[in-house]
Design a protein that fits this description.
The protein is α+β, with helices and mostly antiparallel strands. It contains five helices and seven strands. The strands form two sheets. The protein has a five-stranded mixed β-sheet, covered by helices on one side. Strands 1-3 form a two-stranded antiparallel ribbon.
Length: 160
């Protein structure tokens, strides 16, 4: 939709979006061929996604990706964090009118994803994406939990 909307108004940005989408899809297809990959690769995938989404959100979207150097080669299941970041974008930021900020921080044995979006209802059910990530983590000895924050949503992923 972002690309279609850009074509008549800004063909150069539409071309850039197409190239970013292509790079994202190539990384996803490569990920599907591997049982594990490094957190460095997972963070590179998130960077591709967020650069593409920045074309949609414009200056409203800012983000920080922090990967502790000692964790760069930590093996994880491919596409583990992607659904969590997509949830922030879809449920936290799309309905929000103001600027949106996302932080993904990997330190120690955990990864925290925090957005300042519209937040989550206390009894809101987990959708397929979150449930799938939770099940994948638990099957490998990890966990996923919600963190209390004054604004937006925050999740903590504990690796095995």
């Amino acid at each position: 939709n972002t690309i279609a909307a850009l074509i008549p108004d800004d063909p150069r940005r539409a071309e850039e979006a197409t190239e970013r989408l292509s790079a994202l899809l190539r990384r996803i297809l490569g990920a599907l061929e591997q049982p594990t990959w490094s957190l460095r690769e997972e963070f590179a995938l998130l960077e591709h996604l967020l650069r593409l989404e920045a074309l949609r959100f414009g200056e409203r979207l800012s983000y920080q990706l922090f990967l502790e150097p000692a964790l760069a080669e930590q093996k994880v299941q491919p596409l583990l964090l992607l659904p969590l970041v997509e949830n922030s974008l879809k449920h936290g930021f799309r309905p929000k009118v103001d600027a949106c900020h996302l932080i993904v921080r990997a330190e120690g044995s955990c990864i925290r994803i925090h957005d300042d979006g519209v937040g989550r209802g206390e009894n809101a059910p987990e959708g397929v994406g979150l449930r799938t990530v939770r099940e994948r983590l638990e099957a490998s000895g990890g966990s996923l939990r919600w963190l209390p924050v004054p604004e937006g949503c925050a999740l903590e992923v504990r690796l095995s």
